[in-house]
């Protein structure tokens, strides 16, 4: 059986995208998304649960996200799950699961969007998705 690592979420940005650059100059952006789930329990009462998800995007997609998105925007994100581990200054190991985005798009359910195409060869996801090395030292946040 093949392994599949694919996730799609719909939610609202919890903070403005932060664009940074790796030491080798690759653009990388990170932002948070809140995903809500609403359901009725066995007593007929409405319940709500919110999950907070960190998202990272690379290269042209990173630059487009930083330029186009802001806190509160409703977006659809498709990508893969990635777990990172690092050691804090005091020697504790920390783990984080995040989505490495392949596609980020505005949700047009309650909004409109104007699309501006990038000129080929300039900023934008014009080349096939490539895996960026994810050494903890390379990630600027």
Walk me through the structure.
- This protein starts with 6 loop residues before the first strand and ends in a 35-residue tail after the last strand.
- It has one domain (7-138): Nucleic acid-binding proteins (OB fold (Dihydrolipoamide Acetyltransferase, E2P)), CATH 2.40.50.
- The chain has a five-stranded mixed beta barrel with strand order 1-3-4-6-5.
- It is globular, with a radius of gyration of 17 Å.
- It is mainly β and 141 residues long.
- It is built from one helix and six strands.
CATH homologous group name = Nucleic acid-binding proteins
CATH architecture classification name: Beta Barrel
The CATH topology label is OB fold (Dihydrolipoamide Acetyltransferase, E2P)
Which percent band covers the strand fraction? Answer: over 45%
Poorly predicted runs of 5 or more residues: 125-129
**Can you tell me the number of structural domains?**
1
Question: Quick summary of this structure?
Answer:
The chain is built from one helix and six strands, in the order E-E-E-E-H-E-E.
Summary keywords:
141 residues, mainly beta, OB fold (Dihydrolipoamide Acetyltransferase, E2P), five-stranded mixed β-barrel, 1 helix, 6 strands
Task: Furnish the topology, listing elements before pairings.
Layout: E1 7-13, E2 18-21, E3 27-40, E4 46-58, H1 59-68, E5 74-87, E6 93-106
Parallel strand pairs: 4-6
Antiparallel strand pairs: 1-3, 1-5, 2-3, 3-4, 5-6
């Amino acid at each position: 059986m093949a392994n599949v690592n694919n996730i799609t979420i719909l939610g609202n940005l919890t903070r403005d995208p932060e664009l940074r650059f790796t030491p080798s100059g690759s653009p990388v952006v990170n932002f948070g998304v809140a995903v809500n789930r609403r359901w009725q329990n066995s007593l007929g009462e409405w319940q709500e649960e919110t999950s907070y998800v960190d998202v990272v995007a690379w290269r042209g997609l990173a630059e487009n996200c930083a330029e186009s998105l802001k806190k509160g925007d409703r977006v659809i994100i498709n990508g893969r799950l990635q777990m990172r581990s690092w050691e804090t200054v005091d020697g504790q190991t920390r783990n984080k699961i995040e989505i490495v985005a392949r596609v980020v798009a505005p949700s047009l359910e309650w909004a409109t969007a104007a699309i501006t195409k990038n000129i080929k060869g300039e900023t934008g996801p014009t080349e096939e998705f490539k895996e960026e090395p994810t050494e903890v030292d390379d990630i600027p946040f």
